Amino acid sequence: MASKNPPEINASSMADIAFLLLVFFLVTTTMDTDLGLMRKLPPPLPPQVEKPPPIKDRNVFVVLANANDQLLVEGELMDVKDLKEAAKEFIENPMNNETLPEKKPVQVDFFGEVMVSKQVISLQNDNGTSYDLYIQVQNELAAAYNELRNELAMDKFGVSYDKLVDDKQKAKVKAIRSIFPQRISEAEPKDVGGN
Questions:
Q1: Contact (CB, 8 A) for 87 and 141
Q2: Cβ count near 169 (within 10 Å)
Q3: Distances from the Cα of 158 to the Cα of 7, 152, 162, 172, 180, angstroms
Q4: Side-chain half-sphere of 85: how many Cα atoms within 13 Å?
Q5: For the chain, what is the HEC assignment?
Q6: Is the pTM of this model over 0.90?
Q7: Where does the pLDDT of residue 5 fall: very low under 50, low under 70, confident under 90, or very high at 90 and above?
Q8: 21/18 Cα distance (integer angstroms)
Q9: So where are the chain's domains?
Q10: Are the C-beta atoms of 63 and 126 separated by less than 8 Å?
């Protein structure tokens, strides 16, 4: 009696099929990408360069976010939704209020001599601040600058600042940025407190 071995399966093309399936899934699958904050960090100061002089208190807009996700702006509790308007008022100082930032004359292409605010926004977070509040605060501050820039571009050029950026009109974009430079100083998180 001869033993009957089952016929062997030809597996030579299995590797090709597995490779094709892998390529198919890599090509057709979409991956969520993490969104970050568009910030350009300043270069580190060379050791021989002196530190810049201190900034006057009236030129600094202090924003603190504590561990209880409360926002303290210029020493007073504020809701996140009110932050953008407060920041715009501070950045622009339209009435030359003596408690808001000083202004200095700057020669700007397309505009001539313009009085530019010496404003700096100082953002400090607590170690326990939620990421959600942190992002909301960043968005509101960025929106304040963007709205001021858009308003200025519409007044001067008849198009929004965003359109100037999209159209790569670098000279006009640079001029508007020099009038409303985005100065957000972010300190290292620490225990600000919850009360």
A1: yes
A2: 17
A3: 80, 9, 12, 12, 18
A4: 5
A5: CCCCCCCCCCCCCHHHHHHHHHHHHHHHCCCCCCCCCCCCCCCCCCCCCCCCCCCCHHHEEEEEECCCCCEEECCEEECHHHHHHHHHHHHHCCCCCCCCCCEEEEEECCCEEEEEECCEEEEEEECCCCHHHHHHHHHHHHHHHHHHHHHHHHHHHCCCHHHHHHCCCHHHHHHHHHHCCCCEEECCCECCCCC
A6: no
A7: confident
A8: 5
A9: 59-186
A10: no
Predicted confidence at residue 6, as pLDDT, reads 77
**pLDDT tens digits for range 124-173:** 988 888 989 999 999 999 999 999 999 999 999 999 999 999 999 999 99
- How many residues are present in the chain? 195
Q: For residue 175, what are its two tokens?
A: 């001029």
